[in-house]
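retry 2 of 3: previous attempt timed out while embedding IPE. Reduced batch size to 1 and resubmitted. Inputs unchanged:
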Amino acid sequence: MPEREIPAHVGIIMDGNGRWAKKHFQPRSMGHRAGAQNFRTITRYASKIGVKHLTLYAFSTENWSRPAEEVGALMGLFKDYLREALRDFMDENIRVRFIGDVEGFAPDLQELIREVEEASAPKTGMVLNLAMNYGGRAEIVRAAAAFARDAQAGRVAPSQLDEGLFSRYLYTAGQPDPDLIIRPSGEQRISNFLLWQCAYAEFVYFDILWPDFKPQDLDRAIDIYNSRQRRFGGV
Ligand code: IPE
Ligand code: IPE
Ligand code: MG
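retry 2 succeeded.
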């Protein structure tokens, strides 16, 4: 049997924390706590099996519309886990990057984000993109605005714009497009995740809530990915 191919870039929409909490008769914040724990487990496992780029959707531009208490609990968890990441991931050769509008976060969280990025910049292993205050549409608009500014300043000619150049204005500049997108929780939608980059990604949906998503489920998704035939519009 041929060896399975590990997709170079995997994206995961970490969904289902709220339903997990409900199932366990706990407040939603406890579901987020369980989800955050699992974020570490799955990140480590992805790195171990040789995923080169892992993008995890942690907080969307639309998630601000949740009750203040829930948003507050999420912000608290982000701080705890980034502090922990500063300690732990450092031994693991994982480079952490943030995609999204980090300026939308409180100053102390922004500071932590910068620290994690700086401390992990020399790492040469898996790139972990944390999508926080991320929206695919916002990312595309931001890229278009940045290109327009460059064009206006004469740094680039509008006629130079093509898909490759436009990609360089996105948060994911320089990284390959995702090969595989996994969404646990049972929902089958993209929810504004990596809209541009997903053009030819394979999608795998699971009826598992994110806190219950196990390393074996990542393996299972990779097996499904390997059973697919990617055609990219060809034959
Ligand atoms: C995903 O879990 C975490 C975030 C969106 C921050 P949810 O909180 O969306 O969980 P469900 O969808 O309500 O179960
Ligand atoms: C998508 O999940 C965002 C994250 C997992 C961070 P949501 O729970 O916000 O998505 P919808 O509302 O079900 O589309
Ligand atoms: Mg959800």
